[in-house]
Amino acid sequence: MLFPPPLRPGDTIGIFSPAGPVRDPKKVDKSLCLLREAGFEVVTGTRTGCDVEYLAASDEQRAAELTELWNDPTIHALIAVRGGYGCLRMMDRLDWNLAARHPKLLIGFSDLTALLNTLYARSGLISVHGPVLSTLSTSSEQTRRHFLALLSGEIPIYELGRQINIQRPGKAQGPVLGGNLTTLVHLLATPWDFSWDGAILVLEDTGEELYRIDRMLTQLQLAGKFERLNGLILGDFDRAGRGNPVSDRELALAVSRRVLELTTHLDFPIWQSFPVGHGADNLPFFIGMNGFMDSSNIIFGYNKA
User: What is the three-class DSSP state of 15?
Assistant: First the structure.
């Protein structure tokens, strides 16, 4: 396990676009201001644009941008502009040994799920599942506060109280993995698939119909991915304003019911409504670090030793 050095005031954060293009420049600019106000410098990568509307640049250019920033010794962490789609297309163009040679924090979520988990699987590097530049400025105050504290070296301990629904009680320990459900399913049967054995898995998604979520969860169960988990945490599953026939609450309850059906023969703890996802509450957490979940006190955190 490689734990990158925490950030200090004056450190530089590299800005990169591994997936989709900027949709709302004002949100990105506000997020850059927040990082500067927190005492960090920012450097933007050298992407040049792409004729594919859902990509920030060509696969080669996006991979080269990430590699260039990672190789720069003056840059101490990297944060994505946004997710969307595109990380999977460039992963075979990255040198995964870079992480061992130059450990630094990689920050993002959604489509970044592919990069974060592969970094840990290939090199043991711990990364940060947390806001990107297109969401940081609209994140809740709680999310921003914990995000900046985590970047500066604080190991999070979240006392979550009644906001968590305990679907199956218990305690668990193990490396924390996961993120976006759709992205994780797309890694199955590829060179980037990785072991979930002994892990605490976090899942979230947005804008997906219930039947699609059911299909993805069922595929994971049929692929045996739930069999050796130590714990499962369900974050936000929301409609993203797309007019689905069920409310966000109904969708979340249906997701948890299906998870319980698929894992009825297993005994690991399952939580619902963890504040992680595409909404304003997106509490940051470390991918790959050994964590714990305690249902009796409703605490999620990491072992500091």
Answer: strand
